[in-house]
Design a protein that fits this description.
CATH class of the largest domain: Alpha Beta
Number of strands: 11
Number of helices: 12
CATH topology of the largest domain: D-Maltodextrin-Binding Protein, domain 2
Shape: globular
Helix content: 40-55%
CATH superfamily of the largest domain: Periplasmic binding protein-like II
Length: about 325
């Protein structure tokens, strides 16, 4: 983050009056489409006005954003950089407009929650639904990421709080235990390893495996377990979602491990078999993290998600 950083004296002076949002949106559309006519249509501009806006923007920057040719537009290096930063500016504008619209409807606070797939598929939906009823003035925005990225987003201020599988470095954050889950093996029902008793991960390493993409806590745990067993781990395919894992297994491409709460509905829908894993690491601790300077709304949501809060509500409900 660059908060508090002094302005660079070597930066050129730009005429910011030329950097209106319509021109930024037009330039970004030109990079994406490579065609001024299509970009003008997207921005609801007539072609001469769009061409003039683009020239004025380049004049304000003192450099060309595009190379013009008979086939359309090709972005220069500056044009590509402008698109990257311009898209971020436009996204922030869209977020502002959404928050203003929400404010008119009584929403006074947006909270960005970043969570791993295990938390989203097994625990968060009913909790967030209940929180929305209790706190209609707070809009919770949920983003799905792998555990490492969840922690990074919270630490760097891109998320207000995060829920993830324990393992990433959480120094500098306030961390509480959220829930536990259990990993199970999923495989076709006629597979040679199909059974009911728990099986050690090391006993599955002769098989081809389907796993998740890099950064996922599950992938890291499996890699470490294979190394500890002194065996190679035959990963045939890596995918992004639990559903995609299930489809690969159902097609006979390999076996996989998933959190039990997510694996059972997938197994029922795809007619797969689940078998417990006997390894200690197959029982995982999920955690929730916030920054030490989190405001009262974020702390309140974090406390609401904790199992102690849910247990207290269950006790109160029984005595009503």
């Amino acid at each position: 983050m660059r908060i508090g950083k002094m302005p660079r004296p070597d930066l050129p002076h730009y005429n910011l009056a030329r950097f209106d949002f319509v021109s930024i949106r037009l330039a970004v559309a030109c990079v994406r489409t490579g065609n001024l006519t299509e970009a003008a249509r997207e921005c609801h501009l007539v072609l001469p006005a769009a061409s003039r806006r683009l020239r004025d923007l380049e004049r304000a920057l003192g450099a060309q954003l595009f190379e013009r040719h008979s086939r359309g537009l090709t972005p220069t290096a500056l044009g590509r950089a402008f698109m990257k930063r311009g898209m971020a500016v436009l996204q922030e504008l869209d977020n502002l407009l959404i928050e203003l619209a929400d404010a008119r409807q009584g929403v006074v606070r947006h909270v960005h929650l970043c969570a791993g797939t295990a938390a989203i598929t097994q625990f968060l939906p009913p909790l967030l639904a209940e929180y929305a009823v209790l706190h209609p003035e707070v809009q919770v925005e949920l983003e799905e990421q792998v555990s490492q990225q969840v922690v990074a987003n919270v630490r760097e201020g891109r998320a207000d709080l995060g829920v993830f599988v324990a393992g990433p470095d959480v120094r500098g954050l306030e961390v509480r235990d959220f829930r536990k889950d259990e990993l199970v093996l999923i495989l076709p029902p006629d597979h040679r390893l199909a059974g009911r008793s728990p099986i050690a991960f090391a006993d599955t390493l002769d098989e081809h495996w389907i796993s998740l993409n890099a950064g996922a806590a599950l992938l890291q745990a499996q890699q470490q377990a294979a190394m500890a067993a002194g065996r190679s781990w035959k990963v045939r395919m890596q995918v992004r979602s639990f559903d995609a894992v299930g489809h690969m297994v159902a097609s006979g491409l390999g076996i996989a491990a998933l959190p039990k709460g997510a694996a059972l509905p997938i197994a029922r829908a795809m007619r797969l078999h689940c078998r417990p894993l006997s390894d200690a690491w197959a029982t995982r601790q999920l955690q929730v993290a916030i920054r030490p300077d989190a405001d009262a709304t974020v702390v309140g949501l974090r406390n609401f998600l904790l199992p102690t809060s849910q247990s207290a509500k269950s006790v109160r409900a029984r005595f009503k």
